[in-house]
Write a structure and sequence with these properties.
The chain is an alpha/beta fold. The chain folds into two domains: 141 residues, Response regulator (Rossmann fold, 3-Layer(aba) Sandwich); 158 residues, Alpha-Beta Plaits. The chain is 47% helix and 20% strand. Strands 2-1-3-4-5 form a five-stranded parallel β-sheet, sandwiched between helices. The chain has a five-stranded mixed β-sheet with strand order 7-8-6-11-12, with helices on both faces. Strands 9-10 form a two-stranded antiparallel ribbon. Strand 7 and strand 8 form a beta hairpin. The longest helix has 32 residues. It is elongated, with a radius of gyration of 30 Å. The protein starts with 13 loop residues before the first strand and ends with a strand. It binds magnesium ion. The site of magnesium ion (MG) has 5 residues, from loops.
Length: 318
Amino acid sequence: MIIPLAEQSKTYSVLVVEDNLLMRTILEGHLRDLGHPVVAVENGRQALETLQSNHFPIVITDLVMPEMGGLELCSAIRERRSEGYTYVVMLTAQDSKDEMVRGLAAGADEYLVKPVHPAELAMRLKTADRILSLESSLKKSYEEIKALSVKDHLTKVYNRGYLDERLVHEVKRTFRFERPLSLIMFDLDHFKIINDTFGHAAGDQVLMESAWLMGISIRQEIDWIARYGGEEFVVVLPETILPGALVAAERLRARLAGHVVVVNDVEIRVTASFGVASFTPSSQKEDMTMAATLVEKADRCLYLAKKEGRNRVVSAQL
Ligand SMILES: [Mg+2]
């Protein structure tokens, strides 16, 4: 039976483990004909060594080999942590139900009777392809869900949960390396009036655009922004002393004040008040309350900025 090219499975790389040179060469040839990149080794020990530095989604292994046999190899593969699933096909002798059962019990996904029939091999690899594709699509969905779970639904910046969790890590790092850390907290001015005057859809638009504008105005890959709640946001600036954070906050303030949000042909201008707090640890002795203290201090400065007339920056060094 000839497998049409289009129906061949994806070209997952295959590790062949077989002590018999002839068998090994034939199997390698079949796999290459099917378009798979192949690495072939002689026993289980060599296979484990190879797997340490490379991930092979598919392993086809003989059962009886010197040094380490297929059953032991299979158990070892199942015990180790790897970046993805390893689909194991066990090679068994003709008519040996016993070998087949032992292989499956050791954790093999499939078995192939020797000498390997090319068409049967191709079909076994199609099964492997289905399982591996399913695994990678599950992994992709998981990554997507994970990414969604740390983002604020409306503004697409990080959410409060992520802020609370990651800020603690930033503070830990700050103590460990005795490096500075700054935090900017800002709150849109008179947001309630925007909502009351233009409606909640316009209010949402203002929130989204403000968050987006602030997000692109910070140092990319270094600083990060989260929605603290309502119309309040936090920007975390690692490795930044107070003067640097003040420059950043002033830049954010000016950018927002100069921005116009257009909703249904209506121009809406919005400003924000900013509170900045910075600290540099003087020792590596960690203060567990520092994350909360930093937020409180920035919040206090923000309150003063509001009180002093809004659209301004107030700062404090801890
Ligand atoms: Mg053998």
